[in-house]
């Protein structure tokens, strides 16, 4: 939800944008689209990180710095009009002073819909603290909270489910997969980031971003199976055995489609309200079936995305 009443205005993309998490999954889809718009990117990477995977570009400059070590960030954000933070909201209190000291005026910060969990979660608490640090700052920030991000074999979410269904015809699922999910395609998240950068009404706004509508985990599993051309049987499990199986698989280093903490989260609704993002950002996400069909095609072709 937007924290203030938005004010419409002319679109303007910043000329220079600093991007954290520049070697990650979302950045791999964001950077080409920034380059298409002629935006100069200052890619912040940890010292010693191999950057050869990114193609050289006159619009790309690498800056070394550790977001958790403010002393390494003296000039990391110099010259940037805006920042796109993809490296975790828990780090915001550490590096936000360097952003402000560099005169950066605005930023887009990718959080997670997981901040709404009612389960005990140190990760969620750290993200909430990062969001609160932004609210208390003078920065014209935009917070985006994506649901489960998917879209290419690099996504670390749906690819695990797809690989499981490829290998096994049975999918154990807490409570039979009745809880709503709302996966968001990575390219739709990137579109929301770009809109947040260029639309003045996004300033001081907070938005949930997910798919066009909630679908049950049961339907997610069967949609994936249909696109793979594989049969699958969803095996309903009570929560405690499902969590125990995930814990045991992790300890024994056996394949399992989700981590133990994710099993617990699978019992919580992940439905989100994307109406404010539709209104302010022009957010128009693709149906899950279309996105997962494209991801399956990439897997079949051996493309990482």
TrEMBL record:
Q: Which Pfam families match?
A: NAD_binding_10 (PF13460)
Name recorded for this polypeptide: NAD(P)H-binding protein
Provide the leader sequence positions: none
Entries under InterPro entries matching the protein: ComplexI_NDUFA9_subunit, NAD(P)-bd_dom, NAD(P)-bd_dom_sf
Q: Name one GO molecular function term.
A: protein-containing complex binding
What are the NAD(P)-binding domain coordinates in residue numbering? 21-154
PANTHER family named in the record? NADH DEHYDROGENASE [UBIQUINONE] 1 ALPHA SUBCOMPLEX SUBUNIT 9, MITOCHONDRIAL (PTHR12126:SF11), NADH-UBIQUINONE OXIDOREDUCTASE 39 KDA SUBUNIT-RELATED (PTHR12126)
């Amino acid at each position: 939800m937007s924290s203030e009443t938005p004010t419409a205005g002319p679109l303007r993309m910043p000329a220079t944008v600093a991007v954290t998490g520049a070697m990650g999954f979302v950045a791999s889809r964001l950077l080409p689209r920034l380059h298409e718009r002629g935006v100069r990117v200052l890619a912040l990477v940890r010292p010693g990180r191999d950057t050869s995977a990114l193609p050289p570009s006159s619009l790309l400059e690498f800056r070394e710095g550790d977001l958790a070590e403010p002393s390494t960030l003296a000039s990391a954000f110099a010259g940037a009009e805006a920042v796109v933070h993809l490296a975790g909201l828990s780090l915001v209190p550490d590096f936000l002073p360097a952003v402000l000291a560099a005169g950066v005026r605005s930023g887009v910060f990718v959080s997670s819909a997981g901040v709404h969990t009612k389960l005990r979660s140190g990760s969620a608490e750290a993200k909430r603290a990062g969001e609160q640090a932004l609210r208390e700052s003078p920065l014209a920030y935009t917070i985006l909270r994506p649901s489960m991000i998917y879209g290419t074999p690099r996504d670390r979410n749906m690819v695990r489910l797809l690989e499981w269904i490829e290998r096994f015809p049975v999918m154990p699922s807490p409570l039979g997969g009745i809880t709503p999910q709302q996966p968001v395609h990575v390219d739709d998240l990137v579109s929301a980031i770009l809109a947040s950068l260029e639309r003045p009404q996004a300033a001081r706004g907070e938005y949930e971003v997910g798919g066009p509508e909630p679908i049950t985990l049961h339907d997610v599993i069967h949609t994936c199976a249909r696109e793979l051309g594989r049969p699958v049987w969803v095996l309903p499990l009570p929560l405690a055995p499902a969590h125990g199986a995930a814990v045991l698989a992790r300890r024994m280093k056996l394949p399992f489609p989700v981590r133990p903490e994710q099993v617990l989260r699978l019992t919580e609704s992940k439905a989100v309200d994307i109406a404010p993002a539709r209104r302010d950002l022009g957010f128009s996400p693709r149906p899950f079936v279309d996105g997962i069909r494209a991801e399956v095609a990439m897997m079949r072709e051996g493309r990482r995305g």
